[in-house]
Each structure stands twice: as structure tokens, then as C-alpha cells.
Amino acid sequence: EQFNVTSYGVLTVAIITLEAFPGMWINAFIVCVLCIAWVKKKNLNSNEKILLLLGCSRFWHLCTTWVYKFLSFIYPNYLYVPTILQLAVFFEAFFNHSNLWFSACLCSFYCIKIANFRNSFFIYLKVKIDRMVPWLLLGSGILALAVGIVAYDIADKPHCNNSNSTERGNFGTADIRMDKHFFPSFFLAGFEYAASFVAVIFAAVFLLFSLWRHKRTMQTNSMKDLSMDAHIRAMKSIFSFLVMYSINFVCLVLNMVYVTRKGNNMTFLILVFQYIFPGLHSLILVFSNPRLEKPLLKILP
Prior knowledge:
Number of strands: 2
Structural class: mainly alpha
Organism: Hypocryptadius cinnamomeus
Membrane topology: Multi-pass membrane protein
Strand order of the largest sheet: 1-2
Transmembrane segments: 20-39, 87-112, 133-155, 193-212, 238-260, 266-288
Protein name: Taste receptor type 2
């Protein structure tokens, strides 16, 4: 059953607003706390650097996509203004993929920093990970920028600016008729989705295996140490993220499948989860980090 176009638009904007604003608030909170700590300490550790960029990317992702959806409902003709559609496509694609890659970097960092393996390569990564983090973040930004440029180039094609082939819609930008021009963009986006998802899965599996080995060792020695607690805290954070990331990955794939269908029930459900994901996962990260949790509990009352 299809939604009525008008009621579908109103409901979509209302739901996205209710999800996007809390998400923007919690990510702005993360960024503010870390920036204050940066000013006080004059330095941030690797974990905080990743969280800072992740919070920034999620805030702007939610902000730009909410503005797009809101304007596309009250003033849809703005999409036909030169460069407006292209910029909307570029920024949505860039911040969305930045969010995915920074999240994957965070999971990989937790895995390398906490997991215990005797493999020489893993030991080398553990020693060098703090120096590698800036390069990982730079690489993530470049990959996201590549997707943004490809999306901008495709949106700049004449057939994308034609009002007969462009509609208000999904996928964070506009619903455009599927044809061969969009295969490079969809292939690159799908590759980045899959690569970041695989990185999260490997991080979770390695950390789980390390926790299992460590727990067995502690039971043999009849003792408990701080490393066990660190493993468990990291596992709670990563596995909660893995479940959400898996659902989000499925939604991203379905989003590409349903990109040309406006007012579809599946499209609506995809949008609902995609907008709640950045805020909900950021909230989990806050409560798993004492430096972020304490200020939040102070200001909530």
C-alpha cells in the first residue's frame, strides 16, 4: 500500500525532525566536550581524535540531510536551481561516507589497542597505532571525498538537472531515473559500504577471540585484572555497534535498490532507521566513555 504523497511527505519530515535533532544535539555535545578538553590539555589522544571527527561528520550529516528533506517538502523547486542539487548531493555523500569510515576506524582502533595477540604484525600495529590514526582519518576523508566528487559529477549531468527526470526523494539527495550513468556512483558507494562493514566485522571477531583467550587464561590462573574489564567494555560498545551497523548496512543497500521509488513503505522504514542510527550509536559511545558520560549526567538534570 502506497502512502499519499502529501501525507507521506509530512510524516517523513516529522519523523526525520524528531530523530535528527536529538542526534545533532548528542553529537554536538561530544564535539564540545572534546574541544574543551583539547583546549585544556593542548592535546587529544587517538581515541578522542576519532570521536571528535566522528561527532563532526555525524552532526553535519544529520544537519545537511534534514535541511534537504525539509526544503524539498516546502520548496521542491530549489532542486532545479543550478549547483543547489549538486552541492546537496556532494555534502550528503561526503558526510555520510565520512561517518561510515570514521566509525570503522574507531572499531579497528579499539580492537588493536585492547586485543592481545602474540603475532608480530599485530604487536607492530599495537605499537604504531597512535601514529597511524591521523593517516587512517586522512584516508577515510579522501575516500569519502571521492564518493562526494563522483556523486557531484553525476548530479551535474544534464539529465539530472532536467525537472522531468528529477523528483524529491530518498538516498539523501534526489530520486533520479536509474540508468548506466549511475552505476559508477552506486558501485563506489557499495564498495565503501562493504569495505567499512567488513572492517567492523573483523574488529569484532578479533576482539571476541582475544576476550575468549584472555578469559580462559584468567580462569586458569584464578585471577581477574583490568584487561578483562577493558575487553568487556570494548566488546559491549563494538557489538552494540555491530548490530546497528549491520542493520544500517542493509538499509543502505536497500536504499540503493529503492532509490527510484517515491512514497514506498520500505523507503519510509529505511529513512526512519538511517536517521536514528547516528544519534543512537553516539549515545552508546557517550555512556561507554567516562570522560563523556560524566558531563552528560551533570547537565541532563
